[in-house]
Amino acid sequence: MRTRIISLIVIAMTTLGMNVQAQSSSTDKKVLVAYFSRSGNTRAVADHIKSLTGGDMFEIQVAKPYPEEYHACTEVAKKEKEDNARPALKTKVENMTSYDVIFVGYPNWWGTMPMPILTFLESYDLNGKVVIPFCTHGGGGEQNCFKDFVKHIGKADSKQGFLIGGGQASSARPQVESWLKGLKLIQ
């Protein structure tokens, strides 16, 4: 009787659209969700990906933090882009070889990815891995964010990236879920 009641509760929750647990993965591949986020929008998308895939999280942080003030931060980011800089990172993924699928998230800064993303990508041998970008923006859209990303992943396999406006990031779980299902990474 108790088992039947629990089954009915689970069915009711599922019917009402409540998420009982993380989606089951379509693969047995180990997933890493790495992200760089200034305002928290990219982190919100990373959280959705983590909860849906069961992957591990890694925050990409620069050794020398960016200015808190928005305009000052954008000026530093613009100068880094102009100089094709590779800012030093605070930490490193110690066990990168154990991951099969690596999501890399970032905001659109000056029409492309922030330079710390290039530092991250160039710090590892990604050959043979599936490396998938996701990007948030404040109105600039995709621009060169995905095209430039693919140029820096070596012989890794790339999949279709996910793009969303920063203001929608925290409520984007349904869109992220649909994207992951389309990539056949979850069922």
TrEMBL record:
Name this protein carries in UniProt = Flavodoxin
**Keyword tags:** Signal
Residues in the signal sequence: 1-22
Q: Report the PANTHER family cross-referenced here.
A: EXPORTED PROTEIN-RELATED (PTHR39201), FLAVODOXIN-LIKE DOMAIN-CONTAINING PROTEIN (PTHR39201:SF1)
The molecular function GO annotations come to: FMN binding
The chain positions of domain Flavodoxin-like read 30-180
What Gene3D superfamilies does the annotation carry? Answer: 3.40.50.360
Question: What Pfam families would the database entry show?
Answer: Flavodoxin_4
What is the protein's species of origin? Answer: Bacteroides stercorirosoris
